[in-house]
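Hello again, I could really use a second opinion on something today. I've been puzzling over a protein and I'd love to understand its fold better. I'm sending you its amino acid sequence along with the backbone structure tokens. It would help a lot if you went through both lines with me. I've dropped the whole record in just underneath, so have a look.
***
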Amino acid sequence: MANPEHKARSGGGFTLIEVLVLVAIIGLLTALLLPAVQAAREAARRAQCANNLRQIGLALHGYHDGVGCLPAGRVIAHDPRYVVPGVPCLGSIDKSFLVAILPQMEQAALFNAINHGLSIVSFENSTIHAVAIAAYACPSDPDSGRARAGSMSDPFPYPISDLVRVTSTSYAGVMGSEYSAAAPDWRQGCKPDPGQVARANGCLNDLAPLAFSSVTDGLSNTLIVAERATTILRRIDDPHHPNVAEQSGWWFFGQVGCTLVFNTAPPNAYKKFEPSNSSLWPSSASSLHPGGVNALVADGSVRFIKESVESWPLDPIARAHLFGAPLGVWQKLATRNGGEIVDESGY
């Protein structure tokens, strides 16, 4: 007769082989599900990023409706402590367009906290440097939207000894198809250089005032703001290019590499050009989304532009487009008045 205790004992539990099979099945299911979960999370982050750009687009349109023109991409500081007598246009880069639209972003209190008569990077304005604005940071760009270390790249005349904590943005205004410096120039009698004015063919640059009526290519065919990821800039930091990440991306500073880009290089150029191109990475559109970047169109819509979009061929050493090369679709999208026809199937 069988022992009932032995029968009860042998009927419960799992064998070692069964446990190993179960663990293997769970591991396989996890391996299958994890990419799907990550893809779902990235889709949500990309959707939130696009929504941020829509908010910026509404703010730009609200600014245009109230003032009658777009804000300048960057302006010159006229801090009275450092004005050169007889040269009113001599000054350093100052506020970004993101500062100008703060009231339209429901940030009127922050806008009013700025001393607009002094440089935006002055000690007196240091209270706003590390302020985080949720709509100015893409969730896929972790270095943006939070306070981090900041440092100036060049000697600066303003007292900025406390400029050690800054918050960066994931978004930058599109200057045009290439870099331009069309601000009033003291060497030109405080008038912009005509050649630079011609190159300032985007919507947000040194030219002001620019109204939507100047976008003769059509609002639906012209980019006005694009993503520019701050997190990627950590990869540039090396003994030859130190502190690039600390000197780029500041939401309040109207400098190329902070809140302005130009479309000479294709989207996500950091994937195609080495970190030694330390000026190319901060000055061109980029993101951490797979395959491309979100971009705001002047009509207020948002499009995802593939990094494979047709673009100018670039000289990898000079970081400039080849002389005489025709504009690619990416460059055509950056110009407001080029008269190009852009086929949406091209991007």
Remarks:
- The CA atoms of residues 171 and 227 lie 5 Å apart.
- The longest strand covers residues 292-297.
- Residues 5-9 have pLDDT under 50 and may be disordered.
- The two ends are 81 Å apart (CA to CA).
